[in-house]
Amino acid sequence: MVKDSDGSRTHRALFISDVHLGTRGCQADQLLDFLRDYDAETIYLVGDIVDGWALRGGWYWPQPHNDVVQKLLRNVRRGSRMVFVPGNHDEFARQFFGLSFGGIEIKREVVHTAADGKRYLVIHGDEFDVVVRHQKWLAYFGDWAYVFALFVNTHFNAARRALGLPYWSFSAWAKLKVKNAVNFIGSFERELASEAKRRGVDGVVCGHIHHPTIRETDGVTYVNVGDFVESCSLVVEHADGRLEVLHWKKALMLPLAEAHGAFDQEHEEERAEAA
Q1: β-pair partners for 245
Q2: Using an 8 Å Cβ cutoff, are 106 and 93 in contact?
Q3: Mean pLDDT across the chain, nearest whole number?
Q4: Tens of pLDDT along 64-98?
Q5: Is the overall model pTM greater than 0.85, yes or no?
Q6: Domains in the chain, CATH or no CATH each
Q7: d(CA 88, CA 124)
Q8: pLDDT at 21
Q9: What is the mean pLDDT of residues 10-25?
Q10: Alpha-carbon dihedral of residues 73, 79, 80, 83, nearest 10 degrees?
Q11: pLDDT at residue 267 above 90?
Q12: Whose CA is closest to 87, among 57, 59, 109, 65?
């Protein structure tokens, strides 16, 4: 990692997913804070950057959401390559595959070659979600339930802050308790890993399920970028090609990071039982 003349820390690549601009759950201030300190030669926007589903139900676009868009465009003007791979929530952009707007390339998918020569398929991942693919009404319902969980999070944690207690994530707790969520994530990982192997690449970088992780799965590297709704996570590529999940404002987000760690442990136990 090097520093630019303005003091920002520059990585070889940044992978950002599931920001959900246009929703009340979006932590645009956190992302903007990150982008002020970090830059990259290439920035991949791995889907669900703008939440078209939410905006259809009512317009919500405060100034920080606009600031994020302006900051990304400013990075392009300063020389960063930016590739946008739309997800299911910003599927309106899929009609523009192959085009470029404001210097941002819009692609269905892209293969990223890291500094160490490894090749990664970059894809949002909703194509491998059987609910989104075959039962879209259920996906909309699930999205409503997730928004409700974030509403509970917001008000519950406001009370916890007033009492001097740390952040606690209802959504992460639910993942720990609902076995179907563990099974779904495991299935999603296997599907994406199988696709990467079929394409002959070394790994896959995706988003969609808001669960940041880097793991070896079925002989390939599975990377999930995470989100800027709850975990405030993204993936960076260092100068040597190493990929790393970063949790921005780590001190504030530590309880959630610990919840993800506990979930990963339970996930591994479920996988072991299935084997």
Answers
A1: 235
A2: yes
A3: 80
A4: 999 999 999 999 999 999 999 999 999 999 999 99
A5: no
A6: 2-274 (3.60.21.10)
A7: 8
A8: 96
A9: 94
A10: 70
A11: no
A12: 109
Look at residues 195, 202, 196, 223 and name the one whose alpha carbon lies nearest to residue 211.
223
Q: How far, in Å, CA of 59 to CA of 63, rounded?
A: 13
| Cα distances (angstroms) measured from residue 251 to each of 9, 22, 28, 246 | 19, 26, 18, 12
Cα gap 205→125, rounded to integer Å: 9
Residue 86, Ramachandran bin (φ over 0: left; ψ between -120 and 50: alpha; else beta):
beta
Cα 272 to Cα 125: distance, rounded to the nearest angstrom = 24
| Strand ranges in the chain using DSSP code E only, listed in sequence order | 2-3, 9-16, 38-45, 81-84, 100-101, 104-106, 110-113, 119-122, 203-206, 213-217, 220-224, 233-237, 243-247
Give CA–CA dist 108/98, Å, rounded: 8
What DSSP state is assigned to residue 55?
H
> CA–CA separation, 233 vs 223, rounded Å?
12
> Any idea which residue has 């259809």 for tokens?
56
